[in-house]
Amino acid sequence: MGDWEVGRLGGWEIGRLGDWEIGRLGDRYVAKV
């Protein structure tokens, strides 16, 4: 997945935000690390 961590909106918890860019992609959260 390279620099991207992708999880489902339903069961995904984002713990460490830090400098990540958090957005929505359809029904998923996308975190750029």
Question: What labels describe this entry?
Answer:
elongated, mainly beta, three-stranded antiparallel sheet, single chain, 0% helix, 33 residues
Structural class designation: mainly beta
The H-and-E topology, N to C, reads as EEE
The number of distinct helices, counting runs of at least 4 residues, comes to 0
Radius of gyration: 9 Å
Across the major sheet, the strand order is 1-3-2
Q: Are there runs of 5+ residues with pLDDT below 50, and where? A: none
The figure for the number of domains is 1
Helix content range = under 10%
Mean pLDDT: 55
Separation of the first and last Cα atoms: 11 Å
Shape: elongated
Largest sheet: 3 strands, antiparallel
Proportion of residues in extended strands: over 45%
Secondary structure: number of strands? 3
What does this structure look like?
This protein has a 3-stranded antiparallel sheet, with no helix packed on it. It contains no helices and 3 strands. Helices cover 0% and strands 45% of the residues. It has one domain. The chain is an all-beta fold. It has strands spanning 4-8, 21-25, 28-32. The protein is elongated.
Brief synopsis:
The protein has 33 residues and is mainly β. The chain has strands at 4-8, 21-25, 28-32. A three-stranded antiparallel beta sheet has the order 1-3-2, with no helix packed on it.
